[in-house]
């Protein structure tokens, strides 16, 4: 049986490059030869044991590659095509998918709903940090890359662009809105770009790292609030003349950012939560206006599926959003352990790394 | 200056019937002679000092009456007409109103948004537990009562029917949904009726009081879960074959009900919060699926304005929802202190009381 | 090769019962042994050559049956289960499906969108008026029938209930709305029931046949307008005190009903079109308010897929909507030509017929 | 009684500058001294007698000015403030306003809905092509101009920007959509900008005039189709690889553009109509997919009110949309007849004119 290299979760604080068999291709699957992939903050949570996965699992959920082999029932693609697949791979045929909630795709029985069932790569099945990747329900999940786009140009589509944009989309940003984005990591930066794409006119980024702030301005932030330079809530209320914001996007996953996001909402505003949390959250009574504020809190898992990927690649192709500045480092798959080392410690101004087998 | 009787907040644990001048009528106002009004759970919060209002304020926000005098600029009404006004009285001309959020109506400057600004009666201005009530922005807030409806039939429209229904409306209940309503007080019972009106097919009420449960079944509840007969979350998950509910409506205002509502949501489900809380809320990490569950949490303040009142009276007139069983007791305004005594202690199976001057 | 009986389109005005091979089952398919099916108005259009289908095609798109054989890749079902499938069978994996428009499901390439691609049974593939039916993309389209529901109780779910309800759903009927339904055939009657389920309080049916009007009242119509007793538009405007309706549902497919539906809209109202038209439509300048009326016109093809079927069977099971009075006649499959004869001529008060092999 | 100059409709083909009394200010009104206004295509319809208004009416609905005098009940403004008001002036207190449809504002009785009731200036009351303008319901309709914006920068907000943007908003343009705009007059150009603001990635303008096409590209058009260079529908289908468009915006008001807009929709797409039509419209059977296409047709009247104006000025202030190139000519109010002459004949590349008293 042919072998491939893959980044495998061994135990807490150990992800190593090892060999695994190249997967068998079932009727609904496609085997992708990975040409570029990347690391995600969630992978670091996995590395640190904060988000549990099975030992021996291949990590990674951001694939760019070439179709090596198609299952007998896959339609609409040919071997040799350049493709991406989303981090989340809805089956298309679950009850969740058929009520428009593909990210929450679960087992196919009525009783099987459970949260985040659509997130499979590097979570419930082997992921993309490998030479080959098996894509389930490939007809629903592969999307051909337009010829004029490079691997690196579409590398952010499977996860951070889809997640970040969804912060603005589920927040229902309107033309003329004021939006704040808490934390300008890769997801937050994409949320800034998404808010801009949806017509927000005042976009406030919250961070303290100069390089991130610079990218945020390029992607559409009109103001930046530095949490080291005074109370964040007060700064934002001042910037909005005491009115508060229409939509607050949480892109870090902490009590502090979540609570501040709630506190700066105008009555009737929306807190759009993208963060992956690692502890309970608290809604202070006054911040929640005792339940009388007409607030909306929405949490969103990265939307996937080929139609989503097609649209995101359209955005890239249109030139409206340029995420190339986010890819700060390049590694070979052979050096992925070094990539994790750099990325997990946020050294050297790293935002995203491109990994090529 | 002519005097009238009014139920006045004197200090914590003292609401008394006293005399006050009958209000002057400004150009935008209408003076209503109250023919029927009622007490609300929120009034009990005020009585107990849990929700602060100014000393000397007339309490009450559920008016049914007759137009005694119209301001010079009020259009579309005549003196002598039978009318109601909503508990919340949007001005119609604030920034909040003009972006569709009338309950959050505030001062008319851009800087003046603040939560719950549309709730004026018995909160920021004198309320309806009196012989006369001054209705601000009367053109936007009065609504004529159809001749064939009695005072008591429309007495629930200004607040609990509007609030309860909004739980289902903001929860975006769909045909075929499973909905749970936590606590079957007057608001919760109206939420049951609202869920039924919106097409829910499985409606689970949570309570333990037999009389309330009986009314819940009449209003559309298909199942009831008694929190004294085992773990509520487990009971609901069993009733839904482990699937969870599409929409959970919180109608009490406690950590326990809020948290249970979150725990029984299907992935992608909505927690629709109606309760008035009196302490911080906690979102347990697992119940919130670490932010990955595509959940929506919406809080809603009672929708007001004449179009809302018109529609609610249409519902009453259509015979689809009969709330008469909720009015369990009758008092004269002169006996309102006794009514508070009964209602605050939930004696004698009281649900709502009708107060007539 | 085993044979089965099937109702086949031979040529204009000839649908005959003939023999065909029982279909082969592919990996994604399920073979259903039909236990009950029915005829639809659209089948009569096909019979008359008004809606073109291929010669030799088996007609019918409303299947109730038992799983005879499952394809190797079908998940979540077992042979012997009682099931239905929707008239429309979205693949779940097309671009159209993945942007929430499964009824418009098309080929799996980006270039392949075309209208009504999700309608396959008795249109682009063999249909349900036969002893056996091959269901494509069975994981997405089969739905188990709850034990306590009979075939006849769920016979309306695949098409007319789904279509009729969608008239109210896509019309976005709100609590307290006034709705008119033009023509009280089976679809129109289900639209009445759907409007009621969504919270409409005034529901006006337009027809002239006593038996239909009687059923309409049972399903929720509050008023009926007889087009033989005066101008329909004037009658409706009078019933609504000159206000017009919030939502007008067109359920016949003619210029006359479409135009009247437009004329009775309140400014800002919605015309929800369910009819299958056979000629161009005209929007009179005044009826369309020269484009200034904030009107919405939506046309909807029957929603399908297993989640839809599950929800509709929940409605039946809840007892909120009883469509049994619509099944006026019963035939054996062997007598289907006689059933067509009766149904096409609307003899003997026929509404829907149940066909059993 | 003090007099002012005003452009008055005398009879078909005659709008003249004449004298009129400066209006009296009622309690809810504000008197604005006009500093800049403009002409609209609708004014030309009025001039030509195609849209009927009363003889003697002052024309114009696009006011920029300074508050000269405030009615006693107007809140939130001071005399001397620079303000705009929308072309449409919702009362804020009508049934239509209170169900979110302010452009369809009508008399305050339940029976009084009629289309376009919110359009008052230069339609049912005196308009803005004058030295002074009386603004009704001023609290709801005035909006202060930020100091850093000039009159000319906000001159497009009251009508064409609000109307054009609403084409994209009511069309529910999503990130990654393909949008076509039929006719690149001022409204169409603003629709292009609106589609861009809402996240469309392919925006096709249809026109033939070089100067308009140039501006369209600046405002976000990615492609232009010239109707003189072949069949428009075929050109658009080719540009979209046969897929069709998600949203087609009609911005001219003719059968030809309306029909083409329908023909290029993808199944499930939306036709967003902004044009003011002058004859019946036809929906060809095939273009309407016989009612099976899941199409949506929405018509929209310019949204008004101070919150809308505030948001549009935010867009201008953000620099995201620069409409200055649309103002091609300047006239004094004294020369307004010459302005009409130029504008009505579309001479000299005119797009919009600025008129200053």
TrEMBL record, chains A, B, C, D:
Residues 12-355 form the Enoyl reductase (ER) domain. It holds the Pfam family ADH_zinc_N. Keywords: Metal-binding, Oxidoreductase, Zinc. GO terms for molecular function: oxidoreductase activity, acting on the CH-OH group of donors, NAD or NADP as acceptor; zinc ion binding. Its cofactor is Zn(2+). CDD domains: NADP_ADH (cd08285). Belongs to the zinc-containing alcohol dehydrogenase family. This is Alcohol dehydrogenase. It comes from Pseudomonas vranovensis. The lineage of its organism: Bacteria, Pseudomonadati, Pseudomonadota, Gammaproteobacteria, Pseudomonadales.
